[in-house]
UniProtKB/TrEMBL annotation:
Gene3D superfamilies per record: Ribonuclease Inhibitor
Native species: Rhizophagus clarus
Protein name per UniProt: F-box domain-containing protein
Amino acid sequence: MVNRLWCETTIPVLWRNPWSYSDINYINKKYLFIIITCYMYDTIKKFITEQGIQLLLGLNQSLLFDYLSFCRSINVNVINSITSIGSSLLYNQFSMQQEFYSLIIRKCQELKYLDISSIKHQIFYFPEAKVRLESLCELKCDTSIDFSYFYGLSHFCQSIQRLIINNTYPKLNHGIVKLIEVQKNLKHFEWNDDFDDDDDVDEFTDKFYEEVFLALEKKADSLNYLRVGIQDIDWIENVYIQDVLPNFYKLKILIIDEIMFFDDDQLEKLRMMIYNELEVINIDFNRLEIISNLIENNGRNLKKLLFKPYEIVDLIYTGYDENSLNFIRKVYENCPSIEYLSIIFPPLKEHFIEFEKLLKICQNLKSLLIVISSNVHENYEGKLLEILIRSAPTNLKEIRFGGELKFSLENLKEFFEKWRGRNALSIITIDPIYAEEDYTNLVNKYKRDGVIKDFKCVSHTLFNYCI
């Protein structure tokens, strides 16, 4: 729609992964269905129409590009939804899916991304499948798929770098274990339990976890991204933390999506974990003492330190004040490269002093998530804003204010005025007071002036950082 050069440049980019555009309703937008069916041989079209499958108008038009030759991906869920356009009968949809997979594998020059959640077709039996699957870099799947399917994939897919597994069916699946074992350069691994608590979880569930992570341990030389969400908290606390996690010594990104509690032996194991290359920690460990230990050992290259402040259990113990103070110190002593930081502390004089010291030392900070926990009725909000104006690093572009922080209109106006000349600031809050008209008018004024880039009021779930 601009010119020929733009068109010829853009089409290959858009068609690398034509199933990935979340704002497209693929059933209502029928263009993909039309384009893919254009590739079918006339004999196949005739056979399909004889089965009662409706082919749409436009099939006789010549294509401007060989679109499928640019495709580098297959997404089973999207393709399944597209094939439902031609017929509502499950048998007919199954036949169309088979034809679509065959076409894509035949036409695409190399396959990089494969999402086979809910697949029912053994695509590795297609004539061109071996060559295509050998180039696969990313695979997304779930455990409900029969183990034999993974055995079939493991013959060809041995260069996967990103493996994402949803555990939707908590039963032993040796095929997944085999698929992990044959990988030669696995760098990115995600595991997410996604089954209902009332599912029939058999006695082999723990054994399944054990076999999966023992196979994963053998990839420690290449693995640099690990994300784990396991519903069996006893297993992850007693086995995973103590015996498995310390062995992934080359990790750069560690994400653990479950809240855990630890006894003294487990805490000692955590204190001993050392990852010399770690850049991101995003965890639900809910004690500041544990997080402080982790950053003391692993903070040198740390760029993101993220956790959920509202889950911190230190708040209910007498040691919270000291633990939060120690946490601030550990950050500025051990994390010179920190860019994204979650932090929680009470509004005490010593904490504000240490927080300001952190701002002055950690000059790479781009984003701060701040929660002030307090039952003290005093104007500490103004003091916090003063410290940010006085000592915030020049790179700071986003602040998330949580807890009981409620800034007056006067305090906010003064803060915005003094922020002039710096990076336009994005602010995220959770208090609905900022949606009131007076606050909205104030924010809009400073948006127009270029002082504020964005100002949002969100829920607790969206307030925390997401990776």
